[in-house]
Amino acid sequence: MINPDEKFELLTDLYELTMTASYFENGMAETATFSLFIRKYPSGRAYFVAAGLEQFLDYAANFQFSESDLTFLDRTSLFSDDFLDYLKTMRFTGSVDALAEGEIFFRDEPILEVTAPIIEAQILETFVINTINLQSMIATKAARCVHAAAGRRLVDFSLRRAHGTDAGLKVARSSYIAGFVATSNVLAGKVYGIPISGTMAHSYISSFGDELEAFRAFARSFPKKTILLIDTYDTIAGARKAAKVAQEMAKEGHKLLGVRLDSGDMTDLSRQVRNILDEAGLKDVEIFASSTFDEYKIDRAIKEGASIDAFGVGTKMGVSADAPYFDIVYKLVQYGERPIMKLSTGKVNLAGKKQVFRKIDRNGRFTEDVIGTRDETIESASPLLEPVIQGGKLLRGHPPLKEIRERFRKNFAALDEKYKALHDAQFYPVKLSAHLKEVQEASSG
Amino acid sequence: MINPDEKFELLTDLYELTMTASYFENGMAETATFSLFIRKYPSGRAYFVAAGLEQFLDYAANFQFSESDLTFLDRTSLFSDDFLDYLKTMRFTGSVDALAEGEIFFRDEPILEVTAPIIEAQILETFVINTINLQSMIATKAARCVHAAAGRRLVDFSLRRAHGTDAGLKVARSSYIAGFVATSNVLAGKVYGIPISGTMAHSYISSFGDELEAFRAFARSFPKKTILLIDTYDTIAGARKAAKVAQEMAKEGHKLLGVRLDSGDMTDLSRQVRNILDEAGLKDVEIFASSTFDEYKIDRAIKEGASIDAFGVGTKMGVSADAPYFDIVYKLVQYGERPIMKLSTGKVNLAGKKQVFRKIDRNGRFTEDVIGTRDETIESASPLLEPVIQGGKLLRGHPPLKEIRERFRKNFAALDEKYKALHDAQFYPVKLSAHLKEVQEASSG
pTM for the full model? Predict the structure, then answer.
């Protein structure tokens, strides 16, 4: 198992180190700007949600190879002693301009730009893509689920099939940013302060053998926090037993919070179960459903009239199953005074240091973005990239997660339905400023 | 950022803890057996590769809540002091029987079974699924790529779009088990001893501006390890410049290892580039290709006659893009003396403690598996689940990664082509023993 005090300076592609060694040996020390952006919308998506900046900023501001890292690099016989000595004292001394977490952004818009001596900016590439790709992808998928749920509560149930331990944590964080109300992941509760939530598994019912006995035992253990899983054997029979236990709990002054459906036809079953609960005088016992939901299945269930108060959303959100990666890249856009545009087949990037400007109408709705150069001003439009690191130092503490979540909520409300529809969403208008176009023409010539 | 000494006992679904609290309070303390298995083949798959056991065994054998974990749980106000006291001294005291890493297995076959007092076995659920799902899924995807490559070398390039830091490491480990020869992930080299490999990025070329100058600079820095990326501007012109640099290197007594293609039509370009290199007398300069390869694209390129010596395989392998999760579950199959079969809609599991028996013909080919009860013997068939933890203690050290890789290589060679074909693979025959069938009939009655 990985040493728990291992840091992640070496969690990088080898070529970042061989390139930087070659920059070092060839005296390539000018200031470079790299831009992180997404080149294409994956199927069905027409907006993105920024997440993951906090983890990248901590990485950059604390970047420092350990003794054991340097010993390992030395053992590869790839690097000169001079270069290894340089790495020993190397810190990130540059600047980062970035979208705040919770901002909505679009194709080709820089999520962040790093400006630093080229070695320092190059060496961050692998980690910045790794952490921002995952978190923005999950925040985007989770936002689509929140949108589909139209006000119903969503809980992250994805930990078991998230890709490893780090993804389990970051999925909880990103889905909370996008409006999920809680996670089943206890460590995410401890580390990030996200509300935690849970019910019971089929194994709990099976171990008792008798479903009614299992329900009663759980209600005794958690009289204020019981949600009963009712599909272990037969959902309708399970619902009747849950109603019985709810009535028994009521006599003791307690309230059954809800029942959970985990298999079968969610629309049909939820309505039958609602009737059973209502007829037993249990109108405020909620129905919780968790059965391979994603934004499409949530939307369908609601449109069909399912009687579901809250959804457990698991695997398909936690791995962004229909788009498990974004076409996100970190490209050199300026070296010294020279803006850089790469020109191979179909892979053009916008040269130069940039800024994203957003136009908002008098009702607070987003109307159009303009990608401009970093130093220009665009009338009636607000710049979105903010300086977050200068001279290698963080310019501010990290915003609390709740503040990020609230920022996203406000932004999402300001984005018109036509741009966030689950099906056939329109592409939001993003233009280039006249000045940025001039830079492109000059650098492609 | 997560505290680097955080352990993962709390990386669990809240319901594991509420259920175990309720087991504790209701005196449910009998020995339980849980079975980990995959219920369905994802699209295109007809076998699985076992990986991830080492990380699970370390977790189980060292399971112990920290003081800060217990403080956090106390603050949730969900748990009694008695239960928290119990958790404080709780260790895993049970046993684990498991397939060795590198074994090939099939739908419904137990990957491992955990037998322990029910609380101890239940509480491992989330982590065991999390770590074995990811690693077996990636090993399976990587095995398909290795099979398609038909002897050509594959290198893991997926770190940047793997889902987080832990996935980045585990993807490197799992793909190496399946036969990849190296990874770009430097930390995976340090932690697991996997060979590391890399070339250069477009930013390296762009920063110099002049492609030839960039090639020469890199060759000066790494005269024994140079692979030149030739598609930054125009691949054919890039190949000619690389040939020139190779000839210059030869005069200094050095050898260009290869060139890399990263965009465009791989078949056509690789053949043109091969001709350019051959005509320049550079028959042993290899062509390395890295352009959204997965098993299907590798297979197509080879069938079309592409001239590619090695593939960099990135995102699509590293996130198992066409099947980013498996339908893997951990189910209670026995409690005390009672075998358990869950009966809700379409979700049956095989009751009782089990063993997987494999029949092998005189040529060493796999012919059939039989799932039996743990204690039976099946003629001319070898049991695959081995005891790996007993009384909470590891029974052996972990096998070296190279040994696991070699085990997989031998196993894969013994599996007939019809079961591992990329398209329309047949399902391998898996039967239930007569004894196991009796157990099922007895427990469903």
Answer: 0.97
